[in-house]
Amino acid sequence: MEKFYITTPIYYVNDKPHIGHAYTSIIADVFARWHRLNNEKVFFLTGTDEHGGKIEKAAAEKHKTPKELVDETSQKYKDTWAKLNVSYDKFIRTTDKDHEEAVKEFIKKVFEKGDIYKGEYEGFYCLPDERYITETELVDGKCPDCGRDVQKIKEEAYFFRLRKYKNDIIKLIEGGLIIPEKNAKEMLNRLKGELKDLDITRKSVSWGIKFPFDESHSVYVWFDALLNYLSALNWPDGKEFKEFWPADVHLVGKEIVWFHSVIWPAMLLSAGLPLPKNVLAHGWWTVDGKKMSKSLGNVIDPVEIADKYSADAFRYFLLREKPTWEDGDFSESALKERINGELMANLSNLVARVLTLAEKFNGKIEGKVELDGFIDKKEIIENFDKKDVYSALNLTFESIRKINKYVNDKEPWKLEGKELSNVLYNSLEAIRIASIFLKPFMPSTAEKIEKKLGVTPQLLSDAVFKEFSTKVERGENLFNKIN
Ligand code: MSP
Description:
This protein has a domain at 331-462: Isoleucyl-tRNA Synthetase, Domain 1, CATH 1.10.730. Helix 5 packs antiparallel against helix 6, helix 13 packs antiparallel against helix 16 and helix 14 (377-385) packs antiparallel against helix 15. The chain is α/β, with parallel strands linked by helices. 47% of the residues lie in helices and 14% in strands. The mean pLDDT is 97. 5'-O-[(L-methionyl)-sulphamoyl]adenosine binds next to strand 2, helix 1, helix 7 and strand 12.
């Protein structure tokens, strides 16, 4: 049995989740569900990133202890994923004891390798991004990534010999680590410039894991956080580690590709561990044309959207509205259009029309296969292999349009007897097969279709025309028009 290990970034717990975080988790969920559908052994990891100065500051501002804040917010993440049907296998928190132990263990390994030394860091730091910035990187004195103010710091620190691994990393990226190509190019360009060793401890931050060789320092939050991908598998001795490492896909937003494709592989090389197969980068969402921010008051809560329109409609919108690696804009009006114009007009109406006729039909629904080519399975599978869930979803919906066209052309409401049976047979089987491909994207809708058709949960291997022998029930509409 093949294995598939996919991870999301672990989310900062300074604030509750918004639609950007939901997007990362939903894409990862699509992959996890797809590979389960293929009967593979899947480990889908997510969790929360709970240490560091940013969390320390957020807690102080909210008049809470860091512990209170991280407990509260990580629970909000769990609740959100439950609401959005994100089917993770493990939720890791960096304040988990065994994670902290693993981080210390890892640091000892890297230290023994001779890859950690003591020095002094002098430069800038962006607290919201938790990253070091050199003088030359500054843009108008601000963080080059997010445009916010930076802190100037000068402090004693321990460094990791990142430079030592530069050539290995370049080869790794040239070998196809990063998807898509444009992000790989960006990283290679950055690597052509000067690469400095990485400061991996902070003396002035107390909310963090104590550095094992000098407890007056805490471990830099990114060094701590990246190790979740190993500690979650109970590295070094866990059977999960033996079974699932290396990761097949680290799914990340485009702004954190550097950490995952440069720093993380260097850490693994230093510890002598196998490297991840892919780092998959997705684009960002704006809201009504603007960057989401608290000060603009346009931060969208995914739970509210799911309550209002359903989790599946929200998932569909995010996955369908833009190619995965491009940026896109979220608006409720665009979401409503997709619900009315596609989910309702196309999918929901098709299922309702066919099932109304099938429910009334007296006798066995049988026929000869006429709709065999309605879905391009091979291309959908190829797109999943290329990690292009956007195209895979488009092809799946294309197949639903084809079933609709078939029904419109055949006008089954004018037919009876054998002719009607034949059209119903083809439409019902095609809907059943399409519902299998819908599962990763819209799990509860696919399940509702299965219930209506009277079939038990199916695997990808069931996506072939068979005999139709179950009892159907039209029931409620899958989606209703939104005004
Ligand atoms: N804690 C780090 C990750 C450590 S992984 C070892 C972090 N956390 S985060 O909460 O800031 O971001 C997590 C994910 O949310 C990233 O993949 C990021 O791209 C995604 N998004 C946050 N805002 C977003 C948008 N506006 N749009 C799309 N996704 C964005 O980084």
